[in-house]
Structures are given as structure tokens and as C-alpha cells.
Amino acid sequence: MRKPILAANWKMQKTIPEAIEFAEAFLPLVADAEVDVVIAPPFTLLDRLGAKLSGSGIALAAQNVNPNESGAFTGEIAPGMLVDLGCQYAIVGHSERRALYGETDALVSQKAASLLNHDIRPIVCVGETLEQRDAGSALSVVAEQLRGSLAEVASDRASEVVIAYEPVWAIGTGRTATPQIAQEVHESIRSVLGDLFGAVGGEIRIQYGGSVKPETVYDLMNQPDIDGALVGGASLDPEAFSRIVHFEREGSQ
Ligand code: 13P
């Protein structure tokens, strides 16, 4: 049984007072949640927000990491520093980092392996562009990203990895992939994970990301290989994100 995992990626948004205000509104709304809830705020909020979330069962995540232990890497954050702040997860290989900061599959794979060495679970993002989808190569592009981005992940740690399938054309566009389109890719991801890790591939959780909203989350989560969501815009609002966390209730409306 794969436990659903609903994660917020705040990207470069919210100040400390805004994050505290979010937490105060959000925590009571999800106190009874039986799923894994994760919030990935900017680095500047990890300490204060982490203190606020402490004891709530909500996990803290970073949005990026440098794979090295320490050293002359100006502006970078090492995995051990994330451990210091109580991070249990870190997003790696988000399409914005791949597109804007030149992150390669090889680097993403180093980051994932380094995080696992520090007992932080990587959320490894993959996803095709609109051009790649229109060219009919979505499945092959995603499979290649996946193989490259997981190359350094050992089989005995693979169950701790989370995959986030985020089609680039659906991010921040309001254009969610249909549940059928998402399921097709998730099923193909599941089969690549099986090739890479054998039976463990069936334990790895695969999130969908890209314009997930309270109105769309239930049908997505109802697909057999969709185990969670990685949510940008809608996760900034405590009420909207709490409805996403309680996705089952959205279906019964
Ligand atoms: P939106 O939900 O704003 O489309 O962002 C998705 C995303 O990139 C999450 O990592």
C-alpha cells in the first residue's frame, strides 16, 4: 500500500510573517489528515516554519540541495544543513531548475544519492515540454530523465524516493493534464521503476504536479498509479491546500 503524499512547493514565495500566518490557518484544517503532508518553502523559511510545524506530523522539505558535503560553493546549501533544520524531504530536478539553472539528470542523480546518505527523501521531478509531447516523445523523454536522475540511487534505498511527474506545459498554466494523460505517464514511470529496482519499484510513490487544484485532485488521485500531488500555486492558500490534502472529500461533493 502506497501512502498518499500531498506536497506544497512554494517556490520563491512568502515572507516569514506570511508563512507563520499560513501555518496558523492550515494546521487546524489538516489535524486529522491520514496522508503524508509535506511543505517545501524557500530556504529562508525552513527554520521558523519548521518550528511552527513541529509535532504536527507535517514534514518539512527543501526545494533544492547541493550534493557536496561542504566547501567553497558560494550560495549553496549542503544536505547536512537541511538535516540541521529538520528537513525530511527535498525536491530535486524541478523543471524550473532544469530549464533556468541548467540542471542535468547527472546532477539530479548526485543530489538524490547525497540526500539519501543523509536520510532525507528526495522528490525527483521529471516531465516533458509541450514540444516533446506534441512530437509524441513524452514517454521516452520521461523514461530517459528518470533513468538518468536515478542512476546513483541504490536499490536498497529506492523505496524512500518520491517521483514527481510534472509536465512542463501544465505548470502554472492552469492546464492540468487529464487524469488519463497523467495515468498513462505514471504507468510508464512505474514500469521503468520496475526495470531499475525490481519489486521495490512498486513501493515508490509517484506524484502528479501541474496546476493541481481542489477541483481536480480527486480524479487524479483516483488513478491507480497516482499516489500524490506536488502543488505550486494552490498550495499558497491554506484553505485550498487543505482541500487538496483532504482530496477524498472533494470526490464526495
Ligand atoms: P502549479 O501547481 O502552480 O502549476 O506548480 C506545479 C509545480 O511546479 C509544483 O512543483
Topology (SSEs and partners):
Layout lengths: L4 E5 L6 H14 L6 E5 L5 H8 L5 E4 L16 H6 L4 E4 L2 H7 L3 H13 L3 E6 L3 H5 L3 H12 L12 E4 L13 H19 L7 E5 L4 H8 L6 E4 L6 H8 L1 H5 L2
Parallel strand pairs: 1-2, 1-8, 2-3, 3-4, 4-5, 5-6, 6-7, 7-8
Helix pairs in contact: 1-2, 1-10, 5-7, 7-8, 9-10
The structure holds 1,3-dihydroxyacetonephosphate.
The site of 1,3-dihydroxyacetonephosphate has 14 residues, from strand 8.
Strand content: 5-15%
Integer-rounded radius of gyration: 17 Å
Count, helices: 11
> Looking at CATH, which topology would you report?
TIM Barrel
Major sheet size, sense and barrel closure? 8 strands, parallel, barrel
- The count of β-strands is 8
**CATH superfamily (homologous) name:** Aldolase class I
Q: Helical percent range?
A: 40-55%
What is the CATH architecture assignment?
Answer: Alpha-Beta Barrel
- Per CATH, the class reads Alpha Beta
Distance between the termini: 26 Å
H/E element string?
EHEHEHEHHEHHEHEHEHH
Number of domains: 1
Order of strands across the biggest sheet? 1-2-3-4-5-6-7-8
Question: Would you identify the regions where 5 or more consecutive residues have pLDDT less than 50?
Answer: none
- What ligands can be seen in this structure? 1,3-dihydroxyacetonephosphate
By helix and strand content, what is the structural category?
Answer: alpha/beta
Mean pLDDT: 97
Shape label: globular
Q: Can you describe this structure in just a few lines?
A:
The chain has eleven helices and eight strands.
Essential attributes:
alpha/beta, TIM Barrel, binds 1,3-dihydroxyacetonephosphate, 8-stranded parallel β-barrel
